[in-house]
Structures are given as structure tokens and as C-alpha cells.
């Protein structure tokens, strides 16, 4: 006997489909816009030690297998000092430590890279390379070391974390020598060819409380660190400055000018080596109609992050000698604090996060093309936390080895390779409108990104239905036409992947189980399967006529489809 559908759910379904929005998408396989930059393969976190734990290794193994392009990982606290007796758990929120540098009673340096080795080993064993951050200040080198370690409670304010590790070094020469010894050790352990393939950057967000010094003092920090790396490996790739807030006023421009014409504090030469440029961009979600008793509904704000990107690209473009260098958005996220939790951040568990990422990353690629900037990476600041409840609301990629939907958008991006194709959607918001107002009007953003493999035997399209508001919206009825595809062939293979409420979504599956915090092994096995990228339907044969293919399907709000035709 069929189980009756509840009247309310049936009514919602009827309403949703009765007002579905028709969207026409066209893709020309013969119109190549240029190489598609594989930006969605960079990740990071505050807490380096988690990489050595079983759950961390599990996520790293997934990141290392995202696609043919190399994945990289950036983390804070690689040089932070473990600070007993309070520092008994180095794997805690917004903290990590390695004891890479201490001093003896006479103030002589003691170098110990055992823990950093374990972290880098975990990356490399899982197919991930380090995007090395030289930071933060070891306690023995800090001009004001106490207080040093801290406990962060996951609250909205993180102001209590900026302790002794943010301060200037007691000796610039000792700081530079520490970086030299570390880079030299990495070359000896992993080989010059391997370390040449890493990125080395200096500090994090030095324009805010992460650096308790002036901008000019950061330039000194940069000069000494870069000199240390290059003394150990002259062919290493070095860069920065990882500023918060895009260009951050004059900050980025002054730093770039320093690398060209400033006096190098470490060498007394003019300028400082710079092989890549990095900055950060964050969205700014809020809650609409919230009261003391009602949380209201979540509204994302992609425009804030895109304005950061626009500002930074404008500055980079203005430097003729630097504007073709690789550019990294070194933290590129919908909100500011991954380790800050709240009962109202379920978007991190569900569909808004991946659909936001698809829409935002595509706009950033568009902005890079507009500015002729060499966008090389958009780094997602999210990893995992061991020993935390299932789906606890932190911004992470997985929970207790169960992948969240967000990880599947990167699996989709991993299948996009080769060249970008011309693609148009009648439902896609204009770049300038999203840059100014985000996606907060009546209509959702139904957009498309298309690619063709170098061998021209695989066409892939990501199509999303995004809106800033975490509210019900109509489905999009997609009519997709692809022209000039595989001329002379009568058919091609079609695989349609989907992230929605019932596909590639372990969170909705967990909710359907009653949100258990002690699931059975059988339930865990099912949730792990639900967390992987899934097909909307079985692979099928797509008919082609005169190089034209027509496909129709519905796309719910905040859902994402990947169509692979080969």
C-alpha cells in the first residue's frame, strides 16, 4: 500500500511546480573563451594539527583526489609554540602548535620540525601539497609573549585570541634564520623538486589583529622570511601579503610597491621577491526579521566578497610589472569565522553553501577575465574538527568522516577542465548587478559555467539555482541547448550529477534519521554514501542532430547540477 503524502507537503509541492520559472541555457562548443583556471582546489584552516588525525587524513584523501589538477592546503599556526600547562590539547578551535622554535637558557635557538613534518607528511601522503604559511611568532621570539595560548569557545567574537603570537620578533635575524632553517630542512627531507612545487607565503591578515605591528614592520617580516626561504631554495615560490578585505585601502598597493622599489630590510637591496599575490574576501550574512524569540531567516551577501575581489584586482591591474603574476584569494568564504558557531548556521551543512560557492567562484573568474588578472586559486577556509558533534554548524567540509554537501561542489569543479566555453542563461544575473546588490531580488540566479577538455572529447557544465535568502523559491525549468558538439556523431554519453535535498546530501539524510548524535554503524555507512557526489539518474545516451543536443530538467532552489557529455 502506498504511504499517503501529507496534505501540507503535497500543497507545497504543487505550488512550487505551478510557479516554476522557465530558464533557457545555450552553450556553444565551438566558441572558446580561453583556458578555464582550476581555482577550486585550495583549502585551509586555523588548526594544523587536525591533519594528523584520522578524520583529518580522511578529508585530505578526498581533497587529493578531486581532479587532475593539484590540490593545496594552507594553515595557520605552523610555527606557534605549545604553551604548557594550559596547552594540553593542541587540536582545538582556532589554535594549533608545533614547537618548531624554542631557545635554551642562553637564548640560543633550538629547531624542532618534527610536528611540521608530520603535518606535511599527512598532506603529501594524500596527494595534497603545502601552501606554506610562515607564522605565527614562536613564544621565545615574541617581544610580548604573555599571555600566549588561549581557549576559544566558538562564540561570534574572536577578539580574545590575539595574544603573544601576534607580536614582532625579538630579533629580525633570528626570525629570518628560523625560516631559513625550516625551508632548508624541507628541502633535505622532501627534495628540492618537491619543495619547488609548494607556495610559501608570509603571515596572515597582517592588516588586522593577526599582526601587532605596523605595515612597515610587516614589510620587514616579509623581507626576512622571503630571504630565509630563498637562501635555502633560490627557486622557491614566495608571495603574500594575505591581507583581509581585498585591497584593504592602501595596504595591498603599498605592499606591492615595496616589493618593487622599497628597501629590503634583510638584504639592503631594492625590492623584495614576489612570485604571487594573495588577499582575502569574505561574504557577510545577516538574519532578516530576527527578534529575541524568532531567529528570522538567513540572508547571504555575495556582493561583499565580490567587492573585495574587485578592489584587489583593480590594484593588481595597476602594477604593470606585477599584474600577470598568479593571484590567490587566500581565504574566500561566505562568512568570516569558520570556528564560530551558532544555532542559525545550518547553511553550512546544507545546500546554500555549495550553490553560493558555484555562483561566487564563477563571478570571480569573470572578474579576473575583465581585469586581465591571472587568478590561480580561490581558497576555501574549511577543513574538519575531530571530536565534535555531527553537523554542529561549524564551517567544515566533513563531520565525523561524513562529507557535507559543500565538498561535492569541489568534486564537480574537479571535473571541469580544459577551456571555458561561451554559455548563456536567461536566468543568470549580470555580473555588475551581483557585484552591487548580490542576489536579493525577486528572482534567483540560475547560472552556468561550461568547459571542454583539451582532447575535445568531454564537455562539462555546472548549472546552479542560487538566492541569498534561505527561503523557498520556485524551481527552475531548464531548457538546455548545446550546439556544435561532437560534429558528425549521432549520440554521446550523458552523466548528470546533482546536489539537492535528496542527492549528494548527507545532512538531509541525517535529518531524516532524526538527527542522531550516536548513529549506528549501519547509519554511518549510509550517511557516508549519501555524502558522496551522486547522479540524478543513471548514465544515459544523448541524441545529437547536426551537432545539437537538447536537454530539459528541473533545478530546485539552491540545487546544483553537473552535466558531463562525452
UniProtKB/TrEMBL annotation:
InterPro entries: GH, GH39_cat, Glyco_hydro_39, Glycosyl_Hydrolase_39. Residues 1-20 form the signal peptide. One of its GO terms (biological process) is carbohydrate metabolic process. It comes from the Eukaryota. Residues 99-528 form the Glycosyl hydrolases family 39 N-terminal catalytic domain. Pfam families: Glyco_hydro_39 (PF01229). The active site is at residue 205. The keyword Transmembrane does not apply. Keywords: Glycosidase, Hydrolase, Signal. GO terms for molecular function: hydrolase activity, hydrolyzing O-glycosyl compounds. Belongs to the glycosyl hydrolase 39 family. PANTHER family: ALPHA-L-IDURONIDASE. This is Family 39 glycoside hydrolase. The lineage of its organism: Eukaryota, Fungi, Dikarya, Basidiomycota, Agaricomycotina.
